[in-house]
Every structure is written in C-alpha cells, then in structure tokens.
Write a structure and sequence with these properties.
Layout lengths: L1 H11 L21 H15 L13 H16 L10
Length: 87
C-alpha cells in the first residue's frame, strides 16, 4: 500500500515513474530537494496518517521509506491486549 502511495506522491512532484524503484535513494538518486522532502512528508501524513521526517542526512531508499511507513501503520492499528481477570 505505502509503495503505491509514495509512487503517486513522487510522480506528482515530477519524478519519472521509471526512476522510482526500491533501491533508489530519495536525495542522491531522485534528486529531491528539502522543499520536496517536506512535501513528501506532508503528503504521507495526509494519505496515511503517519509522520515521517525526511532529511538529506538520512538519504533513504524507496524500500526503506516504505518499510518505515508500513511499520508506523501497523503500530497504529495494533490494539494492545489487556489481560482480564480469570476469576
């Protein structure tokens, strides 16, 4: 799910769809700038409800960013089990 959402966001920023592959790094390979990184973060928050901070120092690969988003979604949807009284 997150992969398709991220692909759509990046295409809307003008990145060629052929360049959006799992191993592509956001800053060094796809050449997004800091303003676009903020836009990606805001779009992910709007589409998925997760906060992801992107910066050039952590030049994430597409696959890594998708994993982060998927983990955040899974954590948000996990309902903690509460032990009840057995008596």
């Amino acid at each position: 799910m997150s992969r398709e959402i991220l692909r759509k966001i990046l295409v809307e920023l003008g990145i060629d769809e052929e360049r959006i592959v799992d191993g592509a790094r956001l800053f060094s390979d796809l050449q997004i700038d800091s303003t676009e990184a903020v836009e990606v973060s805001l779009s992910l928050k709007k589409a998925c409800g997760v906060n992801v901070k992107l910066d050039g120092a952590s030049d994430l690969r597409i696959a890594d960013l998708c994993a982060v988003v998927d983990q955040a979604l899974a954590a948000r949807q996990t309902v903690p089990a509460v032990a009840g009284d057995a008596e």
